[in-house]
Amino acid sequence: MTAHDYVLQHWKDTVRTPGVDDTQSFVKLPKPFTTPTAGDYFKNFYYWDTYFTNVGLLTDGLTEQAENNLDIMAFFVEKIGYVPNADHFLNGSQPPFFTRGVYDLYEKTKDKRVISKFKDAVISELAFWDGDRTLSVGLSQYRTNRPASKLDGDYEYFVNRVGGLTETEKQIPPHKLARDFLAIGESGWDCNARFKTDTNRFATYDFAALDLNCILYDAESKISFMCAEVGDNANAERFLTKSRKRKSLIESFMKDRKTGVYYDYDYKADKLSTVLSAASLFPYAFGVSTDAAACEKVFMRLDLPHGLSTAEYRGNDLYFQWDYPNMWAPIVYAAYLALKNTGNIEHAKKLKNQYLDTVESVYNETGKLWEKYDAATGKVSTSIEYETPPMMGWTAAVYEYLYNEKI
Question: Is residue 225 part of a domain?
């Protein structure tokens, strides 16, 4: 059996039915939903995992379950104003791919009912990010809604997870460091070194996140298009204006004028992040820029023998799981779009083949797909944070997407 056959056979095993399956959810969900694994490791609904799962479901023609997953996202927006990290982690969100998920389903079905059904929930979610997560400069950042009174209780867990603190980090009040940790969780990249300062490797609240602002630019552009499709011209124009403003802000604050490369923006220090990560490919993946040379430059700095590293090698440093040399499916998906969108077709082909070959090779050795891979060795990744689990979810989804891509 090939990895492709394995995925087709096991999609059904990732579907959980509320009230029937033990999901450990804090809320009763309205529809069957997909989980990241076919087994017991992840038994819950997770936000951005589910978006990428939908990419695979739509690729393989499973549109009904893809719509069920969007129904759950809309359900949460109606209940709490945003899509949470997971159905049992309600105090923060994850990268906001709900809008793109609706757009993907519409593109697959060409049914305007999809837009009419989800439009209000999409607009409500974007209002959350435009308000609760936006800085005075107009760019957005990852945060947490965890009550301040509970932050001290989260501190020890995170300290243990990252293997201890530096001397300067020990001077930071525990509730503030816990807040930064939880905000990294909202980014989905937990943990990474993108938001590193001289005194704190996890200073998420100091930064406007590049990936987030590119995703929101894409969302604002796509909801503008979808509103126009169903005759809501007022919102079409409103979100078009918002998208143009956000693009201008990304260009002004997040682009290195000397190299043309985009980075996370430390708004407190008014400077760019010192860490190059795959987030620097998001402007090209989501329509902010079409600069082929700059996109190629970033790709070449992250390219390893067996795929794309999530971040650049930094020498003698502590590396986390969303870091060098790990390769994650959502990062590969964004990087592939970036290369394809900018006309870097040979690099796109190379990345596609690297990912397919690595997943297939490890599947042949282990009989499973995995959460993340080591792009340097082509093996299952290891990290200091937790043991890498077997995975369907986004690993399977991006595999299916690339397997079916004809370039």
Answer: yes
